[in-house]
Amino acid sequence: MSMNKKLLAGLPLGLAALGLTDLALAQDAAASAPAVAEAASAVAEAASAVTQAAAAAPAPTFDKGDVSWMMLSTLLVIMMAVPGLALFYGGLVRAKNMLSVLMQVMVTFSLIVVLWFVYGYSLAFTEGNAFIGGFDRLFMKGVWDNVAGTFAPAATFSKGVYIPEIVFAAFQATFAGITCALIVGAFAERAKFSAVLMFMVLWFTFSYAPIAHMVWFWMGPDAYASADVVDAMNAKAGLIWQHGALDFAGGTVVHINAAVAGLVGSYMVGKRIGYGREAFMPHSLTLTMVGASLLWVGWFGFNAGSALEANNFAALAFINTFAATAAAVLAWCLGEGLMKGKASMLGAASGAVAGLVAITPAAGNVGIVGALIIGLIAGFVCLWGVHGLKRMLGADDSLDVFGVHGVGGILGALLTGVFNSPNLGGPSIVADWVTVGMVAPDAYSIASQVWIQAKGVLITIVWSAVVSVIAFKIVDLVIGLRVPEDDEREGLDITSHGETAYSK
Length: 504
Known about the structure:
mainly alpha, Ammonium transporter fold, two-stranded antiparallel ribbon, membrane, ammonia transport, transmembrane
C-alpha cells in the first residue's frame, strides 16, 4: 500500500476519534477544521493522481507475430518428440521392441506435460531460491489476470516486450516432456513400463525442474530498472544463471541432464541379454531416418523459439541450427568413412542429431562460422562418443543417449563460451541489463566464459547423477526395474503391451 493510500485509510479513524473527545478538544478540532479539510483535499488529489497514472500506464501488450511464432515453435517441439524421437528410437531397436519404445516415448511425454502444468512449471519458473522455485503457479494458478482481464505477461529478453505467460508455459512444457523421453533410449528393450514411468516422475521433480530453474530462471530485463537493484535481482535468479552461464535452448537443462540419467539407468538396469555376444541391429533404418529428419525440422522451433520473440536472435538461432546440423552430418560420414571405409545411413542420422545437440546451447549465442565449426567438431567427437567412449564406460546404453546427447551437450556448452566471443563473430554477452550493454571485444575473456560454462556442466552432471541413482534405486525397491528374462527374449511389444508393430 502506498503512503497516499495509508493516509486516506487513516483519515476517517482520526476524524472519528475527534468525536469522542471532550468539548475543549472538539472546539480545538473545529478551529483546525479548515487545515484538516485542506490536508484531506491534498491527500485525495494525490491519490487521484496516483490512480490516474496507474490507469494511464497500459498493461503489457502482446505482439501477434511473437505469439504466433511461439505457438508454432511449441508445435514444432511436440513434433520432435512425437513422432520424431519416437520413430528415431523405434527404428533403432529390434522389431519385437518397436511398440514398447513408441509407448515409452509417447506416454512419458504425456505424463510429464501433465505434471508440468500441475507443479513443474511453478517449481522451474517462479521465484524461490537459487535451486528451485516455489508454488505460486501450482495448477497454473494466476496465469489469468482477473483485474486486467487477460493472461499474465511473461518476460522475454527485450525490455518492454512480453508474451502471454500461458504460451511460455506451453513452450517450456514441450522441453520438459522431450527431455524425459530422451532418457528412454539408454535402457530400451529391457525396462518395465511401469518402472519407466515411476522413474520419470521422480527424476522430473527432483532433477529437471531444479536444473531448469538454476539455468533459466531470472527476473526478466525490466526488473533491472536501475543500478541499485541489480544485485538484488541477480540474487533472485537461478544458481547457474547467477554464474553467467549461457544456455540458449538446453545444452545443460535438456541434453546433459537427460544423458547422465540415461547413463546411470543403463548401469542400474543392466545389460541386455546377449549384449556383447549377439548383434543388436536396427530393424528399420528407414524409420530412423524419418525420425531424424522430423527432429531436424522440429529443432528449429526448439532452438529459434528459445529467443521467445520473432526477432534477430531467433533468426540467428534458426540459421545456426541449419548450418551446424548439416556440418555434423558431413563430419560424421567422413569420420565413419575413414574409420570403416563406408559411410552409413545410421551414421548420417546420428550425425544430424549430434549437430542439433551441440548447437542447442550455442544457437543464439554464436555467429554462423562458429556454428559451422561446432557442427563439424560435434560430428567427429560424437562418433568417438558412441564407439570409443562407450567401450571405455562399459555400459549398455542401447541407443547411445550419452554418446550423442551427453558428449554433444558438453561439447556445445563449452564451445559456446569460445564462439560467443565478438572477436570470433559471436554476439557477446550482456554486461549490464540496466542498459542492455554488451561486453566489448577487448573485454571479453574466452577462458573466463569457458570456465563459467564448465561450472554449469559440472553442476548439471553431479545433480542429475545423484538424483538418478536415488530415483532408480527407489523404483527398483518398489516395483523392480527390469522385465523377466523370458519376457525380454520374447520382446516387450507382446509381453508388456500385448500387441506387435508388424503383422506376420
